[in-house]
Amino acid sequence: MSGNPNITEKKHPADKIKETFEKLKEELKTLGMILGVNNDSTTQPPASSTHSKESTKPDDKNPYHVCLQLFFSGSNSEIFQKDVTADDKKARKAAKAAEKKARAEKSVANKAAAAAGSTQQPQKKPEQAGKNQEKPKQEPKQVVPDSTEKLIEENRQLTKTTEQLAAQMESLVVVEETKTNGDLKSAIKKTTGVEKNVRHVHNVIMPSAVTFDLPKNQVKIVASDSDEGVASEIESTAISQLDDATCLAHIHPAFLTLLAQSELEKIPDVETVCIKFIKAFKEFLRDWTAEREKNQTEASSFGHDLDLAIRPQLAHLTQNGHWPLPFALGNTVRLLKRTIKRVDDQTNAECGETLQNYLEDTLSINFSSAYKAISQLLVRKIRQFKKVVVFDWCPVVNHVLLDAREQIEDMQLTVIDANSSGRGTRHVKSFVDRGYNVKYVTMKGASWASRDGAVLILGCSAIFANGAVAAQKGALASVLTANHYNIPVIVVAEHFKFIDKGQVFQRVALLGRQNIEFIQSDLVTAVVTDLRILGPTSAPAVLKAKALTDMA
Amino acid sequence: MDSNTDIEDLKREFIFTLRRKFPRDSSSSIAIMTVNLIRKIIFRENPRTMADLQRSLTSHCKRLHASERSELIIINIGLMISKLARDEVLQKRGGREPEPLYSLWRDDDETMERLKNADMKKIRKDLQASIKELSTEIESSRECIASQSTELLFNNDIVMVHSLATSKTMHSFLTHAVKSGRKHRVIDVVDEEEHLETAPDFVTPIELFEVASRMPETSKVVLVAAAYFPDGSCLVPAGGHQIALLAKRHCVPVYVLAPFYKLCPFFMTDPASLHSFRSNTLPFDMSANSAGHVDCLHPAFDALQSDLVTLFVSNTSCIIPSHVNRLKEDYYHSQDIADF
């Protein structure tokens, strides 16, 4: 027995390790109990024996193997019959927490592995190994030593299985990265020894041989249609630094331009963001289709591959899910993804064509036609109110105002601006350029403007399912003064600005530091959409009509 | 004639001082200047009877006010002094002032006649003394208001204030609270970007458009009154109306610092006449195109209704808005108000 002299030599220094392993083993047993693993694994020797073997070959026997073995053995009935103590309950709670985390990781891996068609089963094992690392300590138990030969065999088997699994995981990761050119970092970092990557939990040194480390810059978005923000699925990873050029190599330059523009705060409102995004996407699509033609890949997987390819781009735009996309843009992207999935044409070129046409249509439907429809509906109303008050910049409102001014000669406009030389000056400019008169007032004079005006027209970023309106900061104050002087408040919103959520209190990507205020539905008189004029609480009807609700 | 020209000179001097100062002097210093001016005028004019005194006071005050429309304090002071004179006369006569309740029935025409012809010489010294008292009271009003801050602001309060930079009363109000050991956070709503840097240390400056998003975390709002009226409404610096409306929506109490000399006995029918529209707020590069087309409003005041104000903090005590009507009786005589 080759192991024996080693055992006797390393008895003393290995004592501590022995204890550790005992504890680990006990925890694993409990885990096994919780997960309901059957105790009937025949070929494997009792788990209790492994720890002595561990001390013999610390180098090439990963504790990973130990964990696996411990888990699958479970035939030590005596150990399974122990009473459930308070510590066990703690262990169970921790196990559940670890389970959840592992489940999250599993779902990421699974969805990423959908293409490779791997089964669920091989992925359970590495996760359980991950779970094992977070158990609190338990009382050590008595261990019965066993013959070392069997142990050596078992270890060899385990090594093989582990290596196979690891290889599978790697291949899964590799499949996704074929499209991108960036540095490929394996999702799994393997370590060989106990010394490395040791985590301390409650003063018990738990070796973590296999760590799952989602590479910072290559996070994949969980493909849930309903949620562009990934923050709920993956715990917040660090925000990727934009300075590092290598990590940007796989992001299309069109999106990089978009991001740069937003950083410089050149994008004043949601509509511009949407338009720019669609244009950037068209560029990206063109390049991607061309490359696909070059590679002569199958047209049948066009939709699916495009879906996968767009994910890292979007991830980059939203800083890895840290900030969700601006609400209206989220809608657009979601509809886009749905269309992508449904694309089914003969050749790659045709698929590309279809999508380009769809994007063109979106641009025209959502923007130019919508503006016309809204302005038609609203000008009729403005005819009754001669004095119009607006707050801050919105391109739709501007369009409506110019139309109205052309048709109604004696219309008077007052512009309330959030701060001096803010974005309200764009309204003023557009009017003055055409030689119309306009009154301009900063926030200080909002009360006076409302007192003189007959209707307040607001633009918005989004309208939520409960009728709340997301508008620029300062809008709420203007609305309250309007209500005080009893003048109606009309909010203008294209249909894609309706989102199926309650209220979101997070900062949004791509719009710089502009934060949003929420105006409750009871303060708003009417919402003008390109469909019709509605009351604000009818938002769900629009969502249904335009199929903007979650299909998830 | 000499005295007349003297008086005219004095008045002119006064108006010029007011107009020269930009930004505007604090209200209390204006009040004290007015008091001194009126004292000098009375001294020079030397009215013989009460009626003379009243006539001269009203005429001077009206003219002064007409030249500086936004300073209501001038009228207030004039009327206060008139009341002081009446009080002195009454004291001398030893009679009791008829209850305001009964003054509807002007049954004491005789009293009025006597009042009119009362000799000023006897009460002159006393009148001078009471006028001095008045100016001391004006000077001390700031400390009195500041001392009430401990009753209104508590630990862990988040207080939103407006126009901290321009109001010394507000500043002393808050520093008094800070000095007496209260730990609270102050959010100051500032007008312009430049004020953002010069705010004192215990204050977080924000702009007016951010008020709505900060209001949910605020527990108290403190504003300064430019003037307040018998119905409980008041004039606050522009922007105060939105703050008060937001505070009402979030059920946050609004305290208005209002020293007694800002109490106007008249209802303001046309607040628009008070404004001094000063600056053009459009950016410079737009000025070429926008000449003649753009009307920039820059109002000075906002009118707050009485239901938006929780308490007026005066130098004597805190008063609820509905009580202001009664309070004006302390400072003004109803006859003066009626005759104005």
From TrEMBL, chain A:
<dbReference type="GO" id="GO:0002183">
    <property type="term" value="P:cytoplasmic translational initiation"/>
</dbReference>
<comment type="similarity">
    <text>Belongs to the eIF-2B alpha/beta/delta subunits family.</text>
</comment>
<comment type="subunit">
    <text>Component of the translation initiation factor 2B (eIF2B) complex which is a heterodecamer of two sets of five different subunits: alpha, beta, gamma, delta and epsilon. Subunits alpha, beta and delta comprise a regulatory subcomplex and subunits epsilon and gamma comprise a catalytic subcomplex. Within the complex, the hexameric regulatory complex resides at the center, with the two heterodimeric catalytic subcomplexes bound on opposite sides.</text>
</comment>
<feature type="compositionally biased region" description="Basic and acidic residues">
    <location>
        <begin position="51"/>
        <end position="63"/>
    </location>
</feature>
<dbReference type="InterPro" id="IPR037171">
    <property type="entry name" value="NagB/RpiA_transferase-like"/>
</dbReference>
<keyword id="KW-0648">Protein biosynthesis</keyword>
<protein>
    <recommendedName>
        <fullName>Translation initiation factor eIF2B subunit delta</fullName>
    </recommendedName>
</protein>
<feature type="compositionally biased region" description="Basic and acidic residues">
    <location>
        <begin position="95"/>
        <end position="108"/>
    </location>
</feature>
<feature type="compositionally biased region" description="Basic and acidic residues">
    <location>
        <begin position="124"/>
        <end position="140"/>
    </location>
</feature>
<dbReference type="GO" id="GO:0003743">
    <property type="term" value="F:translation initiation factor activity"/>
</dbReference>
<dbReference type="InterPro" id="IPR000649">
    <property type="entry name" value="IF-2B-related"/>
</dbReference>
<dbReference type="GO" id="GO:0005851">
    <property type="term" value="C:eukaryotic translation initiation factor 2B complex"/>
</dbReference>
<keyword id="KW-0963">Cytoplasm</keyword>
<dbReference type="InterPro" id="IPR042529">
    <property type="entry name" value="IF_2B-like_C"/>
</dbReference>
<dbReference type="GO" id="GO:0005829">
    <property type="term" value="C:cytosol"/>
</dbReference>
<dbReference type="Pfam" id="PF01008">
    <property type="entry name" value="IF-2B"/>
</dbReference>
<feature type="compositionally biased region" description="Polar residues">
    <location>
        <begin position="38"/>
        <end position="50"/>
    </location>
</feature>
<keyword id="KW-0396">Initiation factor</keyword>
<feature type="region of interest" description="Disordered">
    <location>
        <begin position="95"/>
        <end position="148"/>
    </location>
</feature>
<feature type="region of interest" description="Disordered">
    <location>
        <begin position="35"/>
        <end position="63"/>
    </location>
</feature>
From TrEMBL, chain B:
<dbReference type="GO" id="GO:0003743">
    <property type="term" value="F:translation initiation factor activity"/>
</dbReference>
<comment type="similarity">
    <text>Belongs to the eIF-2B alpha/beta/delta subunits family.</text>
</comment>
<keyword id="KW-0175">Coiled coil</keyword>
<dbReference type="InterPro" id="IPR051855">
    <property type="entry name" value="eIF2B_beta_subunit"/>
</dbReference>
<dbReference type="Pfam" id="PF01008">
    <property type="entry name" value="IF-2B"/>
</dbReference>
<protein>
    <recommendedName>
        <fullName>Translation initiation factor eIF2B subunit beta</fullName>
    </recommendedName>
</protein>
<dbReference type="InterPro" id="IPR042529">
    <property type="entry name" value="IF_2B-like_C"/>
</dbReference>
<keyword id="KW-0396">Initiation factor</keyword>
<keyword id="KW-0648">Protein biosynthesis</keyword>
<dbReference type="GO" id="GO:0005829">
    <property type="term" value="C:cytosol"/>
</dbReference>
<dbReference type="InterPro" id="IPR037171">
    <property type="entry name" value="NagB/RpiA_transferase-like"/>
</dbReference>
<comment type="subunit">
    <text>Component of the translation initiation factor 2B (eIF2B) complex which is a heterodecamer of two sets of five different subunits: alpha, beta, gamma, delta and epsilon. Subunits alpha, beta and delta comprise a regulatory subcomplex and subunits epsilon and gamma comprise a catalytic subcomplex. Within the complex, the hexameric regulatory complex resides at the center, with the two heterodimeric catalytic subcomplexes bound on opposite sides.</text>
</comment>
<keyword id="KW-0963">Cytoplasm</keyword>
<feature type="coiled-coil region">
    <location>
        <begin position="117"/>
        <end position="144"/>
    </location>
</feature>
<dbReference type="InterPro" id="IPR000649">
    <property type="entry name" value="IF-2B-related"/>
</dbReference>
